[in-house]
Structures are given as C-alpha cells and as structure tokens.
Write a structure and sequence with these properties.
This protein is mainly alpha-helical. It is 76% helix and 3% strand.
Length: 308
C-alpha cells in the first residue's frame, strides 16, 4: 500500500485515435457544457417555480445534481488530458475518481427506483399520494439514497487500493475504472471481482426489483382503465421515467455485468462514453421536452427575467 501511494498512473485516453485529440476536445467540451446547462436549467426552474415543488420534480432535481457531479468527476480531467497531453493521474486521484464514479452510479440506481415508487403511488394510489409522498417522506428517501450509495463503493476502493501494481501503469481507458485497474495488478484479483459482482448485485437487484415491481403495478392499473384516452394520459405521466430507466439499465448492464476476462478496451470505452455522456445529456431532454407543466414554468420564468 505504501508503495502504491507513491505511484502515478498514465491514462492512455483514446490511443487509437490520438490524431483526433483536438476534435475530441472540442466535442467533449461542447457535450460537457450542454450537460451542465441542461441540468442547471432543470434545477433553476424547479427551484424558482412553486408549481414544480412536488415530489416528482424534487427527485428530478436530485437526478440533475447526480448527472452534473458524475460528469464533473470525469470530463474535466479528460478535457485537461486531451488539451495538455499530460495524461498522468496520482494514485490518490485515481482512487478518488473511482470512488465517486461508483458512488454516483449507485445513487442513480437508487434514485431511479425511488422515482419509480413515486410514479406507482401517483398512479395506483392517487388519493393517498399526499400522505405517502409528503415532504418528510421525500426528504427521508433522498437522504437514504445518498447515504446508502456512499457506503457501497468504499469496499471496492479499499480492495483495489490495496492491490500491488507491478505491471505497466498505463490505464487503457479514459478514466480510472475497476476493470482496467484490475488488469494492471500482479495480485490474484478474484476476490475483488467477486466482491464487485456481489455488491453490484445487491445494489442493482434491489433497485431493479423496486423499479420493476412498481411498473408491474403501474401497467396493471393502466390496463384496467376503460378509456383509451385515460390509458394514454396515465401512461404519459411515467413514460419519461421509463425511458430514462431503460437507457440507464441498458448501458450499466453492458458496462458492468461481465467478467474481467472478457474486458476489451474499445468495448469498455464505447459503453463508458454512453453511460457517462449520453445519460446526463438526455435526462433533461427526456423529462422536459414533452412535459407541459415544466415548459409552462420555463416560459413563465423566461418572461419574468425579460421584464427585469
């Protein structure tokens, strides 16, 4: 461990297309600014418009914060490496980046599950919504989400931090992730892999079970609505969240649910980019583009700001 603390990793950062580093820098900078802007707009609209002070939008603000923090954990360092060509990262910097990458992933798992429960209560128990989703309950859900997610990555980070890195210190990726770091260790990493899958299963399965069970009841309720217009209107209230869930779980499973022996740098780079960039970029659009209530709030605030 003491030896590992003094080492520095070199992040290869798209070595196969190094000649395109300037276009990549511009592309990632534009994407990052759009992610920040889109999620800040969501945050400001919900914070300033009293019509949006409901559980659904409070959870959406929390999701926007996760998206901003998760991309800020990786993209600024990536932009710096592309611009300066200084691709080293300290041991502590690498472990910190790894910890927060796992932390924000777990937070989003739990948060999407809580949002699914919110939609379940709204659709299946509308008369009890105010009771089940009171401010006290919402605050409790959010606190438990952020605290529970903070505990899970500790074990991953501690295990990897205590490995010996005696092969090349070149991380064949664009940030510090579990699989490329395990590839650099000269230890037997089977215990780390087992811990990764077990803990990942606990987080993923528990969040997925709550999300799936919520949608089973939601779909059952929608199918029992007699009018087609009523079914369509009810389904529309959870369509945005369902779209976000499908994208998130699809990219997360592709990235994490496979043994290290099947790890290929190119495959990991593609799925990681989809997870780190695509989800935070799309979430503000998914939740607001066809949301009449949010658009009305946005234009109200726009008119007020113009008057000032």
């Amino acid at each position: 461990m003491s030896q590992s603390k003094a080492i520095e990793f070199t992040v290869e950062c798209f070595p196969d297309i190094a000649q395109y580093r300037v276009p990549l820098f511009v592309l990632f900078l534009i994407v990052y600014l759009n992610i920040i802007l889109g999620n800040i707009v969501v945050f400001i609209c919900v914070a300033l418009d009293s019509h949006l002070h409901t559980p659904m939008y409070i959870f959406l603000v929390s999701l926007s914060i996760v998206d901003i923090l998760s991309t800020s954990n990786i993209l600024p360092k990536l932009l710096s490496m592309l611009f300066t060509q200084q691709k080293t990262i300290t041991f502590h910097g690498c472990m910190t980046q790894l910890y927060f990458f796992i932390y924000f992933t777990c937070t989003e798992f739990f948060l999407l599950a809580v949002m699914a429960y919110d939609r379940y209560v709204a659709i299946c128990h509308p008369l009890h919504y105010v009771v089940f989703m009171s401010k006290k309950h919402c605050t409790s859900f959010l606190l438990r989400t952020w605290i529970a997610a903070a505990l899970e990555p500790v074990i991953h980070t501690v295990f990897i931090a205590n490995l010996s890195f005696c092969s090349s210190l070149q991380v064949n990726h664009f940030f510090c992730d579990i699989s490329p770091l395990l590839k650099l260790s000269c230890n037997d990493t089977i215990h780390v892999e087992i811990a990764t899958y077990v803990l990942g299963a606990i987080v993923g399965v528990s969040a997925f079970t709550l999300t799936l069970s919520s949608y089973v009841f939601i779909i059952n309720t929608i199918l029992n609505i007699k009018s087609a217009e009523g079914r369509q209107k009810t389904f529309f209230t959870c369509a945005s969240h369902l779209t976000s869930v499908i994208i998130f779980y699809g990219t997360s499973l592709s990235l994490h649910v496979r043994p290290t022996t099947t790890y290929t740098p190119m495959q990991d780079t593609i799925f990681s980019l989809l997870y780190i960039i695509l989800i935070p970029l799309l979430n503000p659009l998914i939740y607001t583009m066809k949301n009449k209530q949010f658009k009305e709030a946005f234009w109200r605030l726009s008119r007020i700001s113009k008057r000032k």
